[in-house]
UniProtKB/TrEMBL annotation:
Residues 83-171 form the Integrin alpha third immunoglobulin-like domain. GO terms for cellular component: external side of plasma membrane; integrin complex. GO terms for molecular function: integrin binding. The gene is Itga2b_1. It comes from Toxostoma redivivum. The keyword Repeat does not apply. This is ITA2B protein. Keywords: Glycoprotein, Integrin, Membrane. Residues 3-76 form the Integrin alpha second immunoglobulin-like domain. Its main location: membrane. Pfam families: Integrin_A_Ig_2 (PF20805), Integrin_A_Ig_3 (PF20806). It is a single-pass type I membrane protein.
Amino acid sequence: QGQEKLSCNSKKENGTHVVLCELGNPMKAGARITVDMELSVSGLEDMGDAITFHLQLRSKNSPSPSNASVMVTVPVEAQAEMQLRGNSLPAITVLPTSWHWVEGSQRPEDHGIKVEHVYELHNEGPGTVSGVTLSLAVPHLLGDRVLLYLLELGTEGGMNCSHHPALNPAQV
């Protein structure tokens, strides 16, 4: 009839994690109870797409091999919000009218004004992520003319990066 909070204890038993909850002591014969449990389980990144709980009702008063036992399988769904932030340094670039492309030059300034594009990929959680692929399409040509000369590509934070085929073709 009333609602009570259960007293539960976690322990390891036979190599598995066991949560024991005391439902009532003493319990009257023929009593019916309903239990709603909320479990918080961490470290599920490598569990696959489901986790199975083995639930069993045991009585201290009358041990019996026929104690009710059920298996409950719950799907595991990872949730993580990814956020991409980008910036260009400088934010605005204007080529002087006197500037022109110097064919075959190895000097970076002969290929344009340096603009650095910085992108940050943030995991806002709550879950962790792995195997994320970020593809950036950089317009480096305008017709048959060079729009942006892609000089280098770098990463931080243990990421792998595959280089664009048009990256530094003149080896500046």
